[in-house]
Amino acid sequence: MSLRSALILAAVLFLLTLLVRLPARVLLGYLPPDINCEDPSGTVWHGTCGQVRGEGLSIAGVSWTVHPMALLSLKLSADLSSADPNAGGSVSVEAIRSGDVSISALRATLPIAGDASILPAGSSAIVVLALPSAKIHDEHLIAAEGTVVVQHLHIAKPPSDLGSYELQFAPPSPGPTIGGQLRDLEGPLAVNATLHLQPNGSYDIDGTVAARSGASDDLAKALQLFLGPADAQGQHTFSLAGTF
Description:
Blueprint: H1 3-20, E1 36-42, E2 46-54, E3 57-66, E4 75-82, E5 89-96, E6 101-113, E7 124-137, E8 140-155, E9 160-169, E10 178-186, E11 189-197, E12 202-211, H2 217-227, E13 236-243
Antiparallel strand pairs: 1-2, 2-3, 3-4, 4-5, 5-6, 6-7, 7-8, 8-9, 9-10, 10-11, 11-12, 12-13
């Protein structure tokens, strides 16, 4: 081997060693401004954050493993998990240069509060995600399979414990619309509704809700106030629309 070849090989090995040993804190500059990783350790390829804070959430013991071979296809592929007893979970993520993200094997439990979520102020709930696959394009959900369960939903006005609810995404269809079925699992309200979610983030939910016999008078009055009189079966029809 010539001296020139030996020097090139040594330089390549030196650079590879640097890349393999890059500390996890190098990633901090690439995080969104509202996400904070505390006490990073390990490397950019396999590391941990003692605490991740952002978007009203605080999750302990977050770890990741990056698959370097995917970089040869200009993709970022990684497995993430959390050992937090109150917000544990795991997921595999693949992102491409355009910003599209594919999610697989997502299982997570997240406590949320109304002051930092789509829930009204003073509300709280636990969200349980079980999504075998999902896709995000232009920051909007464009495909999803699995379920989202909201447990122990509490609202502040009027103070009420509203029970638990499940959103079951429908099997994929040829069109761009994501469909889902919303139903109650337990609690003072009987809910049955259909979700339609568009690729641009707009959604509409149509269905019925009824107060069960054990529901409080305040809750029954609230349904009457916001949704009008019930039908002969005691059900109120409702329709919601908006954009995520």
